[in-house]
Amino acid sequence: MNPSATNDALDRIEIRDLLSRIAIATDRRDWEAFAACFVPGAAADYGETSSGTIDDAVAVLGPMLQGYASTMNFVGTHRVDLDGDRGIAETYVLSYHRREDDPASDDIAGTRYVDDVVRTPDGWRIGRRVAELLWFRPADPVTPA
Questions:
Q1: What is the pLDDT of residues 44-54, one digit of tens each?
Q2: How far is Cα 79 from Cα 8, in angstroms, rounded to an integer?
Q3: Is 36 part of any domain?
Q4: Are 90 and 113 in contact, with CB atoms under 8 Å apart?
């Protein structure tokens, strides 16, 4: 087997694992673990929600998600284009947001992430993230009994 093909496959697995760690950290609201998936000061564009650095994003996302009882992010379709120690990862995520006021209903979002990834001494990290909300379906309104 070609050693560079083996390395390429391992890099892809590590990048996929990185993106899964972000989803898990978000669901656990572990913002330290979330931020550790990015290079310090990484650019992060979350559209209307936040634009700036990853620290700016965490400052907005943390309080925003406190309004939900819980979240569950499913990392779905994913591809990565590698060029040595850099790459671009494109990932689609379904996010379920369990409403605090109605635990029987979920807001659901479909989001596309485009991440510039870079190999660091600590492994693959995101140097720049662009999040594009593709669609959002609010929970059905609560009807009083």
A1: 999 888 889 99
A2: 13
A3: yes
A4: yes
